[in-house]
Amino acid sequence: MAKKRGKKYQDALKKVDSSKAYAVKDAVQLVKDIDFANFDSTVEVAFKLNLDTKQADQQLRGAVVLPNGTGKDQTVIVFAKGEKAKAAQEAGADFVGDADLAEKIQDGWLDFDVAIATPDMMPTVGRLGRILGPKGLMPNPKTGTVTMDVAQAVSDAKAGQVTYRTDRDGNVAVPFGKASFDTDKLVENLKTLADIVIKARPASVKGTYIQHVSIASTFGPSVEIDLDTF
Q1: Sheet-wide strand order for 42-49
Q2: CA nearest neighbour of 122 among 81, 75, 89
Q3: Which of 102, 99, 98, 103 is nearest to 88 (CA)?
Q4: Do 181 and 41 touch, CB atoms closer than 8 A?
Q5: Are strands 114-117 and 223-224 parallel, antiparallel or unpaired?
């Protein structure tokens, strides 16, 4: 049974021409105009890609710092010891530790957005895989969260870094700002993401790579984007 949408959603939907794909800036402006949430909505982009995620080389994963940030304050934890722990603290990490931090998470604490670890801490962090993995919080070299340069990783996370990865159907969904952002800033963030996705095209992909792109605010209807306007 299809989910019944409320009146505010239906009114917003009437303002979207579902038969057309909008230019990037027009799409962003429209999403801002039809946002009806009583809080500052997150705006997200969804790329439908022609990928066979059963093939290892067609599983996209990475991270990028958005030029205008995400509008969200990220709580960052770092698994590190000694000088690296000190560097993480000086860079602004919210929590730094090793075995004690792992124990805290095993006891149920998950009040953070990004987890970073030095490579030598991964045997300890690895034991948290069943807790962190499903929530997308597991440190990973591909997203720059397993690194010796913890200070840079903390700075990137605090500056508005987002991670992206394909789901089983080859889709990539990423938040790229808040509805309160200026249109031009959202456009710049969105184009940065699109550029990353385009450059990540696996060599083995045949035919049309990006099949569909749409954006939406937290509760609002989606708006399709004309790929040629990227």
Answers
A1: 171-178, 42-49, 210-217, 223-224
A2: 81
A3: 98
A4: no
A5: unpaired
Angle between helices 82-91 and 150-159 (to 10 degrees): 20
Other CB atoms closer than 10 Å to residue 228's CB: what's the count? 8
How far is Cα 188 from Cα 192, in angstroms, rounded to an integer? 6
- Taking phi over 0 as left and psi of -120 to 50 as alpha, with beta for the rest, 72 belongs to beta
d(CA 93, CA 87): 9
Give burial (CB, 10 Å; 0-12/13-18/19+) of 71: buried
For the whole model, what pTM was predicted? Answer: 0.87
Reading the chain (230 residues) residue by residue, the pLDDT tens digits are 446 788 999 999 999 999 999 999 999 999 999 999 999 999 999 999 999 999 999 999 999 999 999 999 999 999 999 999 999 999 999 999 999 999 999 999 999 999 999 999 999 999 999 999 999 899 999 999 999 999 999 999 999 899 999 999 999 999 999 999 999 999 999 999 999 999 999 999 999 999 999 999 999 999 999 999 98
DSSP alpha helix (H) spans, the chain = 7-13, 24-34, 82-91, 99-106, 122-126, 129-132, 150-159, 183-199
Q: What is the DSSP string of 141-177?
A: GGGT-B-S-HHHHHHHHHHTEEEEE--TTSEEEEEEE
CB 124 within 8 A of CB 102: yes
Q: How many CB atoms lie within 10 A of CB 114?
A: 24
